[in-house]
Amino acid sequence: MNHADRIEATIQGIYRAFEHPGEHPADAGISAIDNWIHALDGLGGSALAGLQNELRALRGYVERDDRPAMAGSLQQLGMETSRMAHDMHDGTGDHLRHLGQVLITAAGNLKMS
Predict the structure, then answer these.
(1) pLDDT tens for residues 5-17?
(2) Phi, psi of 16 (to 5 degrees)
(3) Which domain holds residue 93?
(4) Helix (H) or strand (E) holding 76
(5) Integer CA distances (angstroms), 9 to 31, 76, 111, 113, in order
(6) What does the pLDDT average to over 10-39?
């Protein structure tokens, strides 16, 4: 799966999780997080290492169902994803900017739920 497809699958998974919370078990979220951690392995750079660390933290919050911490982590991931995409002027950058917005929206939705 290329990164654009992975980004789109992640966005759709987030939308499904908030539209049908009872149908989206934590295991699916953990699997998506693990897939992103794995996808970022070996790409290098401190920004990506920071994203991986935040994804690992998010995984723990999901396992513990710590919703306030999940919201904070999603917010952080959304802001960092948007920052990384800022200077990218191609399709991948567009997908990353969209993902950043969706993550920030998801954080807000989680805070309100």
Answers:
(1) 877 888 787 877 7
(2) -60, -40
(3) 3-112
(4) helix 67-85
(5) 12, 20, 23, 23
(6) 78
Q: Which residue has the tokens 């723990």?
A: 60
Contact 95, 4 (CB under 8 A): yes
Would you state the structure tokens that stand for residue 42, as one six-digit string? Answer: 């070996």
Q: In the block, which residue shows the tokens 């290098």?
A: 44
pLDDT exceeds 80 at position 56 = yes
Q: Which residues 6+ apart lie within 8 Å of 91 measured at CB?
A: 4
Which residue from 92, 99, 44 is spatially nearest to 74, judged by alpha carbons? 99
Query: Total domain count for the chain?
Result: 1
**% of the chain surpassing 70 pLDDT:** 92
pTM of the model: 0.84
